[in-house]
Amino acid sequence: MTGSIERIFLEMLGSEPKAAPLIVCFYTGAAPPACAEMVRDPLPPIGTVFDERFGSVVDDAISLNAAIHDGAIMVGRPKPGENYRVQGWSYRLFPPELPCTLFPNRGSAFNSCLAMSRIARVDALYMLNATSLWRFMHGAAKQLG
C-alpha cells in the first residue's frame, strides 16, 4: 500500500497546493493518541476512500473551509488490508518530544511529523508542499521525488 500512497502524493508534487504544507497522518485501528481535532464549521465530509482523487478531495475541502489546511488530515483504516479513509480534517499533533539530531532546524511541522511517526498505530505521515515530499515512518524521514 505504501507504494500506491507515494504514487498519489508524487502526482500531487509540483502542483500549486491550496495549502502548504499539507500533512497527512495514516494510521490503523483507533485514532492514535497525541492528536486532537480542531473544530471546523463547516466540516468537509469524512469517510472518503484515499485514492488517486485525494488531491481533488483536499482542494474541495479547502474550498469549503479554508481553515482546514491548519492541521493534519487523519486517514485511517480499521485493520491492515482494508482501505484507508479520510477520518478527520485539521488535527493538532502533539507527540512526545523526540531528540532530533538527524534533521536540526527543520521546523515544527517537520519535527512534529517525525515524532508522530513513532506513535503506536501510526503507519506513516506525509508532508507535501510545492517543491518537496517527505515520508515519515518509525521515527525516520525520507525525501521522495
Verbal overview:
By secondary structure, the chain is an alpha+beta fold. The chain has helices at residues 2-12, 54-64, 108-116; strands spanning 22-28, 35-37, 72-77, 85-93, 122-128, 133-137, 140-144. The two termini are 17 Å apart.
Sheet with the most strands, sense and barrel status: 7 strands, mixed
| Class computed from helices, strands and strand pairing | alpha+beta
- The tally of domains stands at 1
| CATH arch. level architecture | 3-Layer(aba) Sandwich
Question: Shape from CA axes?
Answer: globular
Structure annotation, total helices? 3
State the CATH topology: YojJ-like (1
Strand content: 25-35%
Overall mean pLDDT stands at: 90
Distance between the termini: 17 Å
Binned, the helix content reads: 10-25%
Supply the CATH class: Alpha Beta
Supply the CATH superfamily name. Answer: DNA integrity scanning protein, DisA, N-terminal domain
Compressed to H and E, one letter per element, the order equals HEEHEEHEEE
The count of DSSP E runs of length 2 or more, i.e. the number of strands, is: 7
User: Which consecutive residue ranges, at least 5 long each, have pLDDT under 50?
Assistant: none
Describe this structure in a few short sentences:
This protein has 145 residues and is an alpha+beta fold.
Secondary structure elements and pairings:
Blueprint: H1 2-12, E1 22-28, E2 35-37, H2 54-64, E3 72-77, E4 85-93, H3 108-116, E5 122-128, E6 133-137, E7 140-144
Parallel strand pairs: 1-3
Antiparallel strand pairs: 1-5, 2-4, 3-4, 5-6, 6-7
